[in-house]
Amino acid sequence: MALNPLDADGRIRPVVLVVDDDPGLRESFRLILEDDYEVLYAPDGSQALETLRFHQVDVVLLDIRLPDMDGIEVLERIKALDEHVDVILVTAVQTIRTAVTAMKLGAFDYVTKPFEEEEILSLVRRALERRALDREVVYLRSELARQHDFEELVGRHPEMQRLYQLIESVARTPVTVLITGESGTGKELVARAIHRQGPWRDSPFVPVNLAAISETLMESELFGHERGAFTGALQKKLGKFELAQGGTFFLDEIAALRLDLQAKILRVLQEREIERVGGTRRIKIDARIISATNAELKKAVQDGTLREDLYYRLNVVQIPVPPLRQRRQDIALLVDHFIRKYNRRFHKHVTGVSPTALKVLQSYPWPGNVRELENIVERSVALTDGPRIDLKDFPLDLMLPDLRVRGGGTDRLPLKEAREQFERQVVLRVLERVRWNQTEAARLLGLHRNTLKVKLAAWGIRRAGSGRGSG
Ligand SMILES: Nc1ncnc2c1ncn2[C@@H]1O[C@H](COP(=O)(O)OP(=O)(O)OP(=O)(O)O)[C@@H](O)[C@H]1O
Ligand SMILES: [Mg+2]
């Protein structure tokens, strides 16, 4: 059977299977449905079941009187094969009682002969709407905990402006996108922004972090499985690809993808269809695919851990996200943004950061990028007891030059400032070690106690809950 599953806009058309032994009726169904749907036909129960085994079908129009099998039995076997298929029964008036029994067995609805064209169309439409809703519910449950406020990208640096422009132009078309950038730069936020700005924003955004799923579960997580596909597969499960139907599928940490699954993903990208684990049918997938990585994918290709053909399929449009140290001007904005976020979460009223503290934040190299900055602000908002975040609220290693990152941060500070920063770190370390007993700290540092006091005052360092333990 030649399927032409795409409509004029390139969207996948729903598939309706008409099961009826009367050629005249099959013909009238064809006339009613063929403009909007892909229509398959079966003249009896066994051919209907055969068709369902090999095609993805959305709705079945099932004549209850068939030559080879009782319609109720066909219905039960369809539901056993795939409980998500909606079955609409077509009955004669004298079989309405059977139709009611069938509803209890999971039929979606029934229609009596002779029927009106509009009756059939509205039933099919309703069934399809419910399917979409079911899918949405499954998806929403899986993402229940996510908060949707504070999801916008913050930053005004020219690099960010360029990023916004790219997002906007890419959002309009279903092109495959690869987002690259260091860890914590906001790749997932970019993916969500593309989804939100596109015409499919009301359909699901389904993220899968490939580095976070165990290898054994990965395949069924992505493609789903049929009941009994493997030990423990007690029920059919929809994979993430299917959940993303009509929306965006976000493959995070693509470099962690197992080689044998790379071939399967490649097939999804080329043919836009999947097969569930243990399944026999091909299922059309209509979703935009976005992937992300913090790895050098070209190198992965050279090393043989990433298929080259997959790399080119994923990398149709590449969106690079800049590291935070390349846009330090945005740090103050980001800090404000996160203070507001965590004020709300922790019911605090922090008004900002002290100028000294901001300076430290602006000179740190941020190897963990925005995520690291967010963590620092979260921690500081939670811990501070003052109206403003200050140096004392920061973890000490924030103020230690990070040796892993060259070319950024402290090594560009003038010597005097660098020395002072270093001194501050040492003093803070010692103070922390002696639990802020200043007499003891001064002794260990070889300073007069008053000198220490003056330094602390100059740096704006006071211990949280000040006064206690100050020896
Ligand atoms: N430009 C930004 N504005 C506001 N928040 C941001 C920005 N960039 C990142 N964040 C925040 O930083 C955190 C990390 O972002 P995200 O998860 O998108 O990073 P990532 O690039 O996917 O990191 P990884 O490679 O580690 O998965 C998130 O909480 C996100 O909300
Ligand atoms: Mg990520």
Brief synopsis:
By secondary structure, the chain is of the alpha/beta class. It has helices spanning 23-33, 45-54, 71-81, 96-104, 117-142, 158-171, 187-197, 215-223, 240-243, 259-271, 297-303, 308-314, 331-346, 355-363, 369-383, 415-433, 438-445, 449-459; strands at 15-19, 38-42, 59-63, 86-91, 109-112, 177-180, 205-209, 224-225, 237-238, 248-252, 273-274, 283-284, 288-293, 317-320, 352-353, 388-389.
Write the layout of secondary structure elements.
Elements: E1 15-19, H1 23-33, E2 38-42, H2 45-54, E3 59-63, H3 71-81, E4 86-91, H4 96-104, E5 109-112, H5 117-142, H6 158-171, E6 177-180, H7 187-197, E7 205-209, H8 215-223, E8 224-225, E9 237-238, H9 240-243, E10 248-252, H10 259-271, E11 273-274, E12 283-284, E13 288-293, H11 297-303, H12 308-314, E14 317-320, H13 331-346, E15 352-353, H14 355-363, H15 369-383, E16 388-389, H16 415-433, H17 438-445, H18 449-459
Parallel strand pairs: 1-2, 1-3, 3-4, 4-5, 6-13, 6-14, 7-10, 10-13, 15-16
Antiparallel strand pairs: 8-9, 11-12
Bound molecules: adenosine-5'-triphosphate and magnesium ion.
Residues 153-155, 181, 183-189, 294, 337, 370-371, 374 line the site of adenosine-5'-triphosphate.
Can you tell me about this structure?
- The structure is a single chain.
- This protein has about 475 residues and is α/β, with parallel strands linked by helices.
- The chain has three domains: about 15-140, Rossmann fold (3-Layer(aba) Sandwich); about 160-320, Rossmann fold (3-Layer(aba) Sandwich), CATH 3.40.50; about 325-460, Helicase, Ruva Protein, domain 3.
- It is about 45% helix and about 15% strand.
- It contains 18 helices and 16 strands.
- A five-stranded parallel β-sheet has the order 2-1-3-4-5, sandwiched between helices.
- Helix 10 packs across helix 12.
- It starts with 14 loop residues before the first strand and ends in a 12-residue tail after the last helix.
- Residues about 145-150, about 400-410 and about 465-470 have low confidence and may be disordered.
- The structure holds adenosine-5'-triphosphate and magnesium ion (MG).
- The site of adenosine-5'-triphosphate has 16 residues, from helix 7 and helix 15.
